Amino acid sequence: MAKVEDALRDLAAEHEGLFTAKEAEAAGVARTLVVQLAHRGRLDRVAQGLYRFPSWPTTGLQQYHEAVLWPRAHRELAYALVSHDSALELYNVTHLNPGVVHVTLPPKTRISRPQPAWLRLHFADVAENDRAWEQGIPIVSIARAIEDVAPIHGIEVVHRAVSEARERRLLREDDLQRLVDKFGSEVLEPYIAG
Description:
This protein is an alpha+beta fold. The protein has 2 domains: 2-52; 76-188, no CATH class. The protein has helices at residues 2-12, 21-26, 31-39, 62-69, 84-91, 142-153, 155-167, 173-183, and strands at 18-20, 44-47, 50-52, 81-82, 101-105, 119-123, 131-134, 137-140. The strands form 3 sheets. Strands 1-3-2 form a 3-stranded antiparallel β-sheet, sandwiched between helices. Strands 4-5-6 form a 3-stranded mixed β-sheet. Strands 7-8 form a two-stranded antiparallel sheet. A hairpin with a 2-residue loop joins strand 7 and strand 8. It is elongated and about 60 Å long.
């Protein structure tokens, strides 16, 4: 059983102590062994098909990992990306403090089980060039996140996020032009809190 746990720890290392039963099966560990380990208290069952090692150190990133793994526990998806307010928070370009983790999935994805209260799922096409990684977590690009939050939070949040992202050199020139085309050149002015 030690070799099984070692294989699962290797999977869990990629997601802050979390892994799906589907990932375990792909690594050669039968789902029944994962369930046995959970019954013995060696694993915590976080959600259906999603497990974690209880002794794994908790970090601020664990909920983001859980958010993108939760919809993938039972299906193959082209992507599950932290998005909207949560993406801007993870990039540390705004202080929206969303209280939930926003995740965008492909538009035809169907989720029949109840989702956790702290998780908000969105269904939309996300182009390959708008998919990125931040601190080991799949995420939408900064430009896409800004576009997604604009209708909810308005131009002030857009202006602030663009200003902070530019200051930290996180926006590519083509992304910056895309945001200027969409929101106007005033987003290029330094943001001053009013």
